[in-house]
Each structure stands twice: as structure tokens, then as C-alpha cells.
Amino acid sequence: MLIPAIALGIGSTVKIILNCYLVPINPNEFILGGTAGAALSTVICHIISVSIEYKSLQKQINLKLNPIKFFIKPCIATGIMGIISNMAYKALIMPIGEKLALIIAFLLAIIIYLICLIILKVFSKEEIFMIPFGKKIYNFIEFKKKS
Asked: What is the pTM (predicted TM-score) of this model?
């Protein structure tokens, strides 16, 4: 029970250190300054925490995860989602305004990510059945494949 707390403590310490260095930097001088620096430090914090917890689980219960299914495919889906939602935001910001463009881009990001996960076959039939309304979701996916 201590390992998740320790892992998050180590990750948070790294986040604080990175925030102290990256956030004060002017984003015009270095692309990872300011808010981007804070976001990067958060991502690094969670990568460290998850890595420590994963290594612990590997030792304790002999956990073996398929790196393609659990890391590569979700990263590809995230990249595609990010590119499309960013393009949509930039295309919509002038005609409809910043707030509405952001809401639409956010909703589009969710839809694109889910579609990418389906196309990349990240989830098996059994895993889909485990989520709420999983049988209906699976039947919908199978129906779309046949159409």
C-alpha cells in the first residue's frame, strides 16, 4: 500500500522541480516554457509514478502487459486525437469564437480518441463486455463493420 504513495511522492517531487525551472521561462523564448512547461512536468510526474508502480506490480504478481496494446496503440490514438482536435480548434476559432471552438474541439477529441481505439483494436470483445453497456457497444461496432 505504500508503493503508490511513494511513487506519487517521487513523481510530485520531480514535478515541483521541473515547474520551478520551466514555468518561469517565457514561452516565446523556449517552447516548453510557461503553461507548456507545467503540462510537461505533469506528464513526466505521471510517467515516473506509473513506471514505479508498474515495476512493483511486475515483481509482486508477475504482471506482463503487451507494450503494443497498452502503450503504443494508445499513444498513436492520442497523437491522432491531438492533431485533429487542434486543427478543428484552429479552424473554428475565428468563425465561432474561442469558447465554442474549444468545446467543439474537446468533444471531437473524445469521439476521435474512441474511434481510434476501436480502429486500432485496443480492446478485446471480453474487455468491451466488461464496461457499462458493453454488449450494446460491441453490437454497434460489429454492425458498423458489416455495413
From this structure: 0.67
